Amino acid sequence: MQNYPKQEVVAMLLAGGQGSRLGVLTQNIAKPAVPFGGKYRIIDFPLSNCVNSGIDEVGVLTQYQPLVLNEYIGTGQPWDLDGIFEGVHCLSPYQQINGAAWYSGTANAIYQNINYIDRYRPEYVVILSGDHIYKMDYSKMIAAHKKNNADCTIASIDVPLAEASRFGILNTNPDGSIYEFDEKPAVPKSTNASMGIYVFTWSKLRKYLIEDAENENSSNDFGKDVLPAMLNAGERMFAYRFEGYWKDVGTIDSLWEANMDLLDPNVPLDLSGEKDKIYSRNPVMPPQYISQTAKIQNALVADGCNIYGEVEFSVLFAGVTVGVGAVVKDSIIMPGAVIEDNAVIQYAIIGENAHIGSGAVVGKRPEEVEDKEQWGIAVVGGNLKVGKNAVVVPKEMIYNDIEGEGE
Amino acid sequence: MKGTNILGLVFPNINDICIPELTSKRAIGSIPFGGKYRLIDFTLSNFVNSGIDKVGVVAEKKFASLMDHLGSGKAWDLSKRRGGLTILSPYSMGADSFTTTVECMYNMRGFVEKAKEEYVLLTTSNNIFNCDYTKMIEQHMNTNADITLMYVHGKISKGAAAPLVITTDTDNKITDMVINPRVENSGEVECDYLFSSAFMKKELFLDLLVDCVSINALDFRRNFILDNYKRFNVYGYEFTGYYSAITSIDTYFKSNMSLMNPLVRADLFNVDRPIFTKVRDDMPSKYGLGSSVKNSLIAQGCVIEGEVENSIISKGVHIGKGAKVENCIIMQDTKIGENAGLSYVICDKDVVIKNGRALMGYDTYPIYIAKDNIV
Question: Which end of chain A is more exposed for a tag (fewer CB within 10 A), N or C?
Fold first, then answer.
């Protein structure tokens, strides 16, 4: 039998969710594989955070549409997670002696992989989500967990009171210990929101996972079942206050905002430089070409782009073409998309390898729309074709090709 | 299909002498090019895209930068259990450094002898081109040639050291060969001259090498090629795609600038035969409010707040507010201060141009600023 070297910490990354609120963007890929920030995919953030925090063993729990995600993670080499004994491992549901079962909830996904975690004999297990954009040093959180002699530590962030009712709120004693969970409270008692990042002492978590699996009434979810069970049993649970940029990108609006945040010098998320670098797979493409006819301002642009038109307040991924006279404003253009001459893209997300015909209009500026209820980010799915002079109205989500004029 | 019967050998120091500025601390093969590449990337990518995945890089001297760039060869898919990339340094064979390419080849003949491949493909590394070698090899087999030499048709690149000009018959057999011929207006006359690569059986390569060394004929071009072309069946293979031989600071500058031409980019960065290079995890480039960029090639990790026109901006370069950069090649991680003005300047890596500095070269004589300098 192979003797796996002991790891003090193993990270488990929940990447199996469908992310149905992202609609067409997650039709064929899991949410963590959604492109973000001009060259990354969402999962680059938690994976890079792990590496930058000194965590060498990461299990990625996959279930929904795992092909692109599996391929992207590959051997883990871009994140230095391809060690001889440790690294990144994709863990999909599997058949067992007494039958096969999908991951029925976040806790169940970890429960079904107890044998995987046990191989490394860890003291602590970090549970992460695959849909958050942030830079965090988990080692500091683990240090706080140890100092408090805690059984469970939950990362929290201060949110505006008006928004607190959208989050799971942690009510704490002055020493930071948690006395109550308040899931999306109508009248929040505090603004201390859970970030969905947990550190557990493995021996404790292991016990509660087994108990949870035996409970037929449980939905096998961390937030709904395991954490309340631990609190009720009087385990030591602490909040760990995180200061910095953090954003859940589970919706079209938040995904769009988080991308735009990268253009805002006042947002405290810096992806430049060597410190706490976010690693990713890099496109094999030449540098971006900005032509004589281009006008480009306040934009983030990746390798392989060819820009002949106007680009403003936008994020352009690798290999995007913007034709002569085309206008791209306040938008996200995913890898390989082509915006033909004179097309106008505003407040929109254009999916991977989509093709926008010449003169087509996608989205509108909010000030151009009278009924604000009708306004929103327009989304064109990957590999779709929007024909010549076709129109995609604001807030629309396109799942099928749109024929153009005279086509 | 990968795994051919060919051993690729690259000589990254041949022609170092052509560009003393850029090769004072590096081999010509590791000169930065086109914003994110090193010259050797083109040769290595051509190998890999033609299925040649056993490659020896024969380093003669000044190869620290080259070794850093190549690493394990992973970026070119050349980090392999079988085959892959081997860096052959002069010291690894028990000898000290060399003065000639022939000695250098002779010194690492053990590596060639041991290789299971039947053929060798020898290349220099100072050429920019995207080539499918399978066509050259096909011609070699069809003509029953002993040696096939690649050539191009055009004006000889300015500063080229000892170009070999050839005449071929209709079957591409080389019937005449002269070295560095004396011609009126030689830079203006178009001719066929040897370019980049030579292909032959491994046994023949080793025999000729021993022959050369045994009579102390140590010049590769004069002795290995020129003295032998009549003794054997030597054919030329014409490469007809876009090419550029980097043989002087002037050709280096012009060749970089030729990348602004979309046809050149389409030929060179053929999506079916990509040019691989070592990557750095730079973020996408950021264009600030008030920036203006025209007709330029920009790599990732740059922050552009000023004006850029007709320039190559490499990874991690910062161009401050109000700065004006025209007709320049700015290599990686250089910082151009606010309100600085640069025209026809080649800035090597990690240069700092302080706020308000103005530097101006000329079309035919760009100013070169060496690595790590502060202006």
Answer: N
CA–CA separation, A338 and A171 (whole Å)? 49
CB contact (8 A) between residue B287 and residue A316: no
Q: Is B112 on the interface with A (CB under 8 A)?
A: no
DSSP B275: P
A267–B contact, CB cutoff 8 A? no
Say which residue the tokens 């070699």 belong to: B140
State whether CATH 2.160.10.10 applies to domain B286-369: yes
Flag whether residue A292 sits within 8 Å of chain B, measured between CB atoms: yes
Beta carbons within 8 Å of A217's beta carbon, 6+ residues apart:
none
- Render each residue's pLDDT in chain A as its tens digit; 407 residues: 567 889 999 999 999 888 889 999 999 999 999 999 999 999 999 999 999 999 999 999 999 999 999 999 999 999 999 998 899 999 999 888 888 889 999 999 999 999 999 999 999 999 999 999 999 999 999 999 999 999 999 999 999 988 888 888 999 999 999 999 988 888 999 999 999 999 999 999 999 999 999 999 999 999 999 999 999 999 999 999 999 999 999 899 999 999 999 999 899 999 987 889 999 999 899 999 999 999 999 999 999 999 999 999 999 999 999 999 999 999 999 999 999 999 999 999 999 999 999 999 999 999 999 888 999 999 999 999 999 999 999 999 999 999 988 77
Q: For the purposes of burial, counting CB atoms within 10 Å of the CB of B215, is it exposed (0-12), middle (13-18) or buried (19 or more)?
A: exposed
> CA-to-CA distance for A4 and A8, rounded, in angstroms?
12
ipTM of the complex: 0.90
Indicate the domain borders of chain B.
3-268, 286-369
User: Is B284 in contact with A263 (Cβ distance < 8 A)?
Assistant: no
Q: In Å, how far are A34, A42, A172, A251, B297 from A259, measured between CA atoms? A: 12, 11, 33, 12, 24
Length of chain B: 375
pTM above 0.90, yes or no: yes
Question: A290 and B295 in contact by Cβ < 8 A?
Answer: yes
Residue A320: φ, ψ to 5°: -85, 140
Contact yes or no for A5/A44 (Cβ under 8 A): no
Please give the angle made by the CA atoms of B104, B108 and B111, to the nearest 5 degrees.
155
Which residue among B281, B294, B303 sits closest to A277, beta carbon to beta carbon? B281
How far is CA B185 from its chain centroid? 26
Which of A382, A272, A380, A248 lies closest to A39, judged by CA? A272
For residue A367, how far is the Cα from the chain centroid? 30
Distances B350 to A276, B292, B336, B365, B370 between C-alpha atoms, Å: 21, 23, 10, 22, 9
B246/B255 Cα distance (integer angstroms):
7
Rounded distance between C-alpha atoms, residue B131 and residue B104, angstroms = 26
Rounded to the nearest 5°, which phi and psi values hold at A378?
A: -85, 140
B243-245/B352-353 β-pairing: unpaired
Compute the half-sphere exposure of residue A114: CA atoms within 13 Å on the CB side of its CA.
14
* Strand-pair partners of A125: A10, A200
For residue A13, which of A98, A121, A138 has the smallest C-alpha distance?
A138
Interface test with A, best of B298, B303, B304, B329 (most A CBs within 10 A): B298
Sign of CA dihedral A75, A81, A82, A87: negative
Query: CB A288 to CB B297 under 8 A?
Result: yes
| Cα B125 to Cα B57: distance, rounded to the nearest angstrom | 10
Assigned architecture for domain B3-268? Alpha-Beta Complex (3.90)
Cα angle B221-B225-B231, degrees, rounded to a multiple of 5 = 155
Spell out the long-range contacts of A81-84 with Cβ–Cβ below 8 A and sequence spacing 24 or more.
Answer: A81/A47, A81/A50, A81/A51, A81/A56, A83/A56
Q: What are the angstrom distances between the C-alpha of A276 and each of A50, A137, A272?
A: 10, 9, 9
Report yes or no: B294 at the A interface, CB cutoff 8 Å. yes
